[in-house]
Amino acid sequence: MAKLPTSVENIIDKHGPHKNFTPVDGYKGTHEPDALVKTHCCFCGMQCGIQLKVKENKVVGFEPWMEFPFNEGRLCPKGVQRYLQNNHPDRILSPLQRVEGKGFEPIGWDAAMDRTVNEIKRIQRDYGNDAFGMLSGVSLTNEKSYMVGKFARVALKTANLDYNGRLCMVSAGAGNKKAFGLDRISNNWSDLKHAEVIIIAGTNISETFPTLTHYIWQARDNGAKLIVVDPRVTPIARTADLHLPIKPGTDSALFGMILKILADNDWLDHDFIDNHTSGFEEALDAVKDYDLDWAQETTGINKDLILQAATLWGKASTSFLLHARGIEHHTKGVDNVVSCINIVLATGRIGRPYCGYGTITGQGNGQGGREHGHKCDQLPGNRDITNPEHRKYIADVWGIDEKDMPGKGLSAYELIEAIHRGEIKGLITICFNPLVSLPNNNFVREALEKLEYYVAIDFFLNETARHADVIMAGSLHEEEEGTVTTAEGRVVKINAAVTPPDNARRDGDIIMELAHRLGAGDKFNFENSEAIFNELRVASKGGTADYYGITYEKIVNNMGIFWPCPSLDHPGTPRLWEDKKFRTPDGKAHFNAAPFRPSSEVVDKEYPVVLTTGRVVSQYLSGTQTRRIGKLVDQYPEPLLEIHPKLAYQYGIKERELVKVITRRGEALFPAQLVETIREDTVFIPYHWGGVHSANQLTIGTLDPVSKIPEFKVCACKLDPTGKLAPHPSESNAYQSN
Ligand SMILES: Nc1nc2c(c(=O)[nH]1)N[C@H]1C(S)=C(S)[C@@H](COP(=O)(O)OP(=O)(O)OC[C@H]3O[C@@H](n4cnc5c(=O)[nH]c(N)nc54)[C@H](O)[C@@H]3O)O[C@H]1N2
Ligand SMILES: Nc1nc2c(c(=O)[nH]1)N[C@H]1C(S)=C(S)[C@@H](COP(=O)(O)OP(=O)(O)OC[C@H]3O[C@@H](n4cnc5c(=O)[nH]c(N)nc54)[C@H](O)[C@@H]3O)O[C@H]1N2
Ligand code: SF4
Ligand SMILES: [Mo]
């Protein structure tokens, strides 16, 4: 049984997290590196270009890569520290096996592989193939994402594969497919610069996509009006023309109201609506009873602000609408997304220069990783695993019988629920830390403790992997060649700067060896990453995410190629929809009716305060990587409870007082940070920490019915001040998260 080892201290001593170290003993950065390798940052979806400095097969520093067109050398605080991982003392340097009561001990690769394959076979024999699940992640390259999808279906033969994008981009993906039949931002970032009006809804871009702000500033220099919709006055909101301080969970009411105002004032593009869309009447019908008083009451935004925003949008001739997790992490995430798209379609401002719309993809390869088949319902090229033609095409590429291909499996949180119910008995994870990042993590921990066998592939020991029976020492971004697709749809090249240290292995090699040992070796004979990419190209051909015409050579020669790129002589598609040929069955863009409905948990007398969660600039996701980098930890050492001084006053809460935050799922202590930049009825906690510091002890495990994304952005809580001040942040050990 995969129980938590008795001594967590033992694990931390051996495997970190340690936050302070120097990259290479004695290397002062003064003598010449052996090589400068052009590649990309391993963190967010901007995938900024960077050059890594290599000395004696170790990454020892970086230089800006000025020529890469998106960021032209600019990097954010995480980007300038990302090089400190390859030679980090916490690296897992060989496979490990958990020894009850002792923690983890190194074992050889043979033993780790043998044990894993035997357990997979035993569990599948006793309980069926689908009783072994797999969870993957989109920090992985396109090649690895593709291979994981194929591995789960062809070697592991399970339906139950899903990925951490389920917590991230799936509401946007589902909304975009409904509206356009394709899931990608409509334009490259350059088009932002000349948009007259820009709406940014539910994204704190200065902290989460810092290098993208450069494009917003350029638009501002050109006179653009900026509208920000966020319950907090985020850094970008401080510079906006209009900030709409929305009550969490009410975006579809706001955008529905704006649609109504556009129609009432005839700020519509009738030609576009009539010739290139369907469903306008239904979408309008869903909002026909909305009025400004209702919208003000529902969204908490002053009605004059709503009217001003609608007027700016309605009268503009060019515009861009961007959103991210703030509107998507909801049980009505898909409704929020389509209600944004509705106002874009109503004004016909898409498929033209300086007119665009899109979600800002979060993870490093959040775009490419959601296209090539490691989602529970998907096959490469963004094909549908339930569609017989799609299944047949991919089965032929893989050289298997279509009947042997598993069907649709469970989504990430549902997969954990199935483990909890005892239906799934074995688990393999790569690039996912569900114990920190899934909602209601006390429930997730209970599930992990029920597994009969759990194997994790990672380069650091994350909180979830502490429950593993075996850990396989995997590779960092800079240790394996491949491609990723940036948030603007540009496929770029990741170059290996070094080989994995010591006895760690490339992720790709680990997956391939497992496939061989499971008897599917003939389907996994890839010589190198390019060979995997070439199979991916064929597998994606004809799908909506068509990469067929993209080659490694073309990527390098052009600093990236935008998909779709259906043939070798095709230049790629930086701007979609110029031809107005949408990828829906009728070829039109679809309006979707999205009548407002409340969030799954709303405030009441007992739990009167709205809790929302998200990010800070110096930490990344579950913190596995960034909590190990001293300067990033020092910048924001521990999760704080952002609270408005007026709400704090009601409870008598003082700056840095420890406040117990309680929800129906759990409770946890956080130091209060009094800020006037948040709504008075809402508190915010960043989620990058585990254990007692984890915000996800509090969040709710309810899912959007279509996208299955959890409702991270809204639940109800109560506050219980302790009267005690939190210790000085320098004494915080939150980065250890034990
Ligand atoms: N520094 C840093 N950067 C990152 C990441 C990271 O972990 N750290 N992660 C990357 C990834 S994977 C992702 S997905 C992105 C996420 O990027 P963002 O979506 O920008 O980040 P979040 O902090 O999750 O949420 C954004 C904003 O939503 C607001 N919000 C909360 N509830 C609501 C609501 O109901 N409506 C509206 N309109 N707004 C609301 C919050 O106040 C917050 O400012 O960032 C990427 N970049
Ligand atoms: N409350 C709350 N919870 C949230 C969110 C929120 O806003 N609020 N946001 C959600 C979002 S948008 C996201 S994307 C998820 C992210 O949640 P996770 O995917 O769990 O977060 P990561 O920290 O990326 O975990 C990835 C693990 O993969 C490892 N890893 C990274 N790159 C590689 C690689 O190339 N190879 C291998 N083998 N391992 C690798 C890291 O070391 C880490 O242990 O969190 C979600 N959870
Ligand atoms: S903006 Fe994103 S990709 Fe660019 S340096 Fe920062 S974390 Fe890395
Ligand atoms: Mo994300």
From TrEMBL:
Assigned keywords, A-Z: 4Fe-4S, Iron, Iron-sulfur, Metal-binding
InterPro entries assigned: Asp_de-COase-like_dom_sf, MoPterin_dinucl-bd_dom, Mopterin_OxRdtase, Mopterin_OxRdtase_4Fe-4S_dom, MopterinOxRdtase_cofactor_BS, Prok_molybdopt-oxidoreductase
Domain 4Fe-4S Mo/W bis-MGD-type: residue ranges: 34-90
Gene3D superfamilies reported for this sequence: 2.40.40.20, 3.40.50.740, ADC-like domains (2.20.25.90), Dimethylsulfoxide Reductase, domain 2 (3.40.228.10)
One term under GO cellular component: membrane
Residues making up the signal peptide according to the UniProt record: none
PROSITE patterns found in the cross-reference section: 4FE4S_MOW_BIS_MGD (PS51669), MOLYBDOPTERIN_PROK_1 (PS00551)
UniProt KW Chloroplast keyword: no
GO BP term (any one): respiratory electron transport chain
Pfam families associated with the record: Molybdop_Fe4S4 (PF04879), Molybdopterin (PF00384), Molydop_binding (PF01568)
A GO MF term: 4 iron, 4 sulfur cluster binding
Region (Disordered): 365-384
Protein name: Nitrite reductase
Organism: Anditalea andensis
